[in-house]
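Risk register update: the risk of archive-format incompatibility is retired. Evidence:
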Amino acid sequence: MNHLTTQYEQDFNAWIQQHIELLKQGRFNEIDVEHLIEELEDMGKSNLRELENRLIVLIAHLLKWQYQYQQLQNQWKTFTGGSWRGTITEQRTKIAKLLKQNPSLKKETQNAISAAYPDALKVAISETGLPRSVFPEHCLYTIEQLFDEDFYPEAYSA
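Archived output:
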């Protein structure tokens, strides 16, 4: 096991700093290629995970908006969904920023929505207390709707 492999396992931050220096100095033959490839692949996956996590929160709040907003407004006349609106706006803003910084993620958006929906559904069911049967099997919101700052789904009526 060479020094860089040991450093990778024992002090990741030092390993990063060492590789930055090696790259700056053009000392490519000294680079721990195997671990560098692993870390670069993981960086790409982390952006996709962030997109999926933000979509989970966004979709869950849109589901709550659609399937519980009217019920809560009837129960509490002063209910306006302000905190939900804030969360929806925040997630849309952060997703837009993520996609602007990583344009190649745009081609992954539909798959990310499909991957996020089951978890968003679990959150919505848990937070609303509504039965699973109330909600659609698959995400019915289009990409355009999800990212449209003016889109809020109409209330569901049983």
